[in-house]
Design a protein that fits this description.
With 236 residues, the chain is mostly beta strands. The protein is 0% helix and 31% strand.
Length: 236
């Protein structure tokens, strides 16, 4: 007997192609003209909860985005290569920022990550021109390369973070100081390497693993505070 599976329907409304599944909507494509874009909360009476994979990828005419407050997920590569996008606020409804979600947004200067975000995916903001980063206070995992090749002068890592991935802040050449909170247990390989202006680092008492060369080529590093319970850190 042939078994037929019901697939989510795909349709179009205004500037979006979307899929309906279990009463919620995932945006799967964008066909608008760019500029200033507001991602709506509701389409046809149903909540828009997810921005799918590569939806706005390479939309070089996109300049700003307001993300609806029903959105819980920003998919892989959702805004990558949006070279004119200058700022983004990720609302408190979002819990996941996918890998490469904003990578190579070379005009992106400021990002505020909402307080419900738990995970920042690999290379989520890699090669952005970030000068200001505000990380929400529920983020537990900063993925590999998450902020690599960015330009913030300082970053506040909240106490909720437990893992800082490999190369997470690699080549952030304007970063001057870093405080690793007590809940962080692992700092990945080359997490802060090539941060040539990094002068001071304070490492909290929860860190049990510092990856090899985590602070390699930090030529300005003059002050390091490491909790005495940590044995033989190798990342410097």
């Amino acid at each position: 007997m042939l078994l037929l599976l019901a697939l989510p329907s795909v349709t179009q409304a205004q500037d979006y192609i979307y899929r309906t599944n279990n009463g919620t909507i995932t945006i799967t494509g964008y066909i608008g003209s760019g500029g200033e874009v507001t991602i709506t909360n509701i389409i046809n009476g149903r909540p828009v909860t997810s921005i799918g994979i590569n939806v706005f990828s390479e939309c070089t005419h996109l300049t700003s985005v307001i993300i609806g407050t029903n959105i819980t997920n920003i998919g892989i590569g959702a805004f990558e290569y949006c070279s004119r996008l200058t700022s983004i606020t990720i609302p408190n409804s979002v819990t996941n920022v996918g890998s490469n979600a904003f990578s190579d947004c070379t005009s992106l200067n400021n990002v505020t990550i909402g307080n419900s975000v738990i995970s920042i995916g690999c290379a989520a903001f890699c090669r952005c021109n970030l000068t200001s980063v505000v990380i929400g206070n529920n983020v537990s995992d900063i993925g590999n390369y998450a902020f690599a090749h960015c330009n913030p002068t300082n970053v506040t890592i909240p106490n909720s973070v437990t893992v800082i991935g490999a190369y997470a802040f690699f080549d952030c050449t304007n970063l001057a100081s870093a405080t690793i909170p007590d809940n962080v247990t692992s700092i990945g390989v080359e997490a802060f390497s090539a941060c040539t202006r990094l002068a001071n680092v304070a490492i909290g008492n929860g860190v049990t693993n510092i990856g090899n060369t985590a602070f390699l080529e930090c030529a300005s590093l003059t002050g390091i505070t490491v909790n005495a319970s940590q044995s033989s850190p190798t990342g410097f």
